[in-house]
Design a protein that fits this description.
Elements: H1 2-23, H2 28-56, H3 67-94, H4 102-116
Helix pairs in contact: 1-4, 2-3
Length: 117
């Protein structure tokens, strides 16, 4: 998970540049605070959903598990991450689009900053 986690920080920085290019306002603070809330929400749900699925399957610790509990274990730890990973890939492939290459956006921002000083 090291590569995807590292890429998130790059994407955040890129969105700050894009927001400044698009609106003229550079707002890294609001982006970081909003992403902090999203990280907390994701961590909470990422911990709670597997537990809810195990409970729905009738999981009982330190006992032989029922077929339904085994299905929920497989869903929680294999299929749900695979499905959510595919959804994330599709979102990044089709939603995360730039109107221009990032290098051109950065060059325009630098030119704007030189003209304003």
């Amino acid at each position: 998970m090291g590569l995807p986690t590292g890429l998130l920080f790059v994407i955040k920085a890129d969105t700050v540049d894009y927001g400044e290019w698009k609106s003229g306002v550079r707002a890294p603070g609001i982006l970081m605070s909003a992403s902090g809330v999203a990280n907390k929400l994701g961590s909470g749900l990422g911990s709670a959903i597997p537990v809810w699925l195990l409970a729905a399957g009738g999981y009982v610790a330190k006992q032989e598990q029922s077929a339904k509990a085994l299905q929920m274990i497989a869903l929680s730890y294999i299929w749900l991450p695979v499905i959510l990973g595919v959804v994330a890939i599709l979102v990044m492939a089709f939603v995360y689009r730039w109107e221009k290459p990032h290098a051109e956006i950065v060059a325009e921002l630098e030119a704007r900053r030189l003209n304003n000083n």
